[in-house]
Request: fold
Amino acid sequence: MLADPWQCGHNNSMCHDLKLKLFPALWLTALLAGCSGTGPALPPIPEINTTGMLPPVQQQIEQAVKEVQDSPRNAAANGRLGVTLLAYEEYDTALGYLQRAATIDRDDYRWQFYFGYALAKVNRHDESLQPLRAAADLEPELSGINIVLAQSLDAVGRADQARKQYERALATDPARGDARYGLGKLLQAAGDTDAAIEQFERTLADGGDSGLVHYALANAYISRGDSEKAEQHLQLQQRYKSVRIGISDPLLRTISSLKISDERYIREGKRLFDAGKVSEAAARFNKALELNPSNSTVHANLVGIYSVLQQPGLAEKHYRAATEIDSNLFDAHMNYATMLFQQRRLDEAVAAYRLAIDADPTNVEALVRLGFALGEQGNGGDSVPFLRRGLELDANHPLGNYLLGRQLVSDGQLRQGIVHLERSVTASHTRRSAVYLHELASAYQLDKQPGKALETLQRARQVAARYGSTAIKDVIEKEIEALQATDDG
Reply:
């Protein structure tokens, strides 16, 4: 019988020659089936083509392949490579390594789960049931295993068994929104609309808004005959259509943690920026660009970050890069316009705000900010249509009401101006509220309402003191003294 080239015995020179030829070309073929050692026969492994992958990803996979080559019958080495491939959605290739790991160590729930998970990802749900059930038996307290098993059972038409698995998952982790959503869908399909609505509502209550859940609720309310609530949830589905059901699962988190991508650095950058660590955020976003230089959203974020860091040259560089990739990118135009406005480059700011509105005509902030910039240019009359459009979308927008109210007072429409100035201070007070209140007090004085003017100035003084706004507080105190002196006279 001829020697089998896929047998990797120590004396098989053909095997070693094949490795040397394939590896430099990045066709990382694991010629490992039946390698030295004892144990069950292992399946052959498909080739791994890393062509087109980022260099760090190629290095990561090459290292994982080397670990398997060094220990062909090591379940952890095979499993790690399989899970790494899952991270890059290379499901078909991952299957071979995960099957090897699950075959080598049948008592490790991880390899049984990931093997079943990979089968489910390529719609081989019937085949996924056995390893997923094995994983659930080995680790019954991990809700994520039960959920994936339930999804596969549902896919093959075993709704009753799927329901039991969702209920089992919720018994161990009541906050699992994906389990509650899955259970709701099964209940709805079974005609139990009220119970389905209860599950969907609890999904939103526990995990926040999600377009998928709002859409399910809209359909459920249509089935119930409640068109008003159905329409409400359809509108919410549009608002939150990009928001997924929140999931915190250690098994899935392991997969995502292995993925080298710009997404990870983008998330870290946003978190650091929100925490006020702007320089550190810039470093993370730049790291994301190293991995994906054509990500226009990262360039747009860096426009805003470098504006905060007062590095306009770098902000402009990333604005040009972002708009070369996507000329209609709202965030790039908006961040750039805001920086230009802060630098008092008003003509350029107005042009950039107009581009932002072209990209998103219903964005309230862009409409209001354009109105603000036009007013600062001395074109207050031109600002009014944009401010009105913004307030049609958000009637209580504080800055929009302040700017429109101030402009209307300036145009001689005193009473209409006062209405908007009053709306600007009805929301929770912020640092700007002292300015808004001061403007409202001035309008009351013009309208010959000195009592309201004095009361409003006193409120403005309190807000200014709370936020340490010394300059405007001094102005307000002088005006209070003048009003009180007039009353005394």
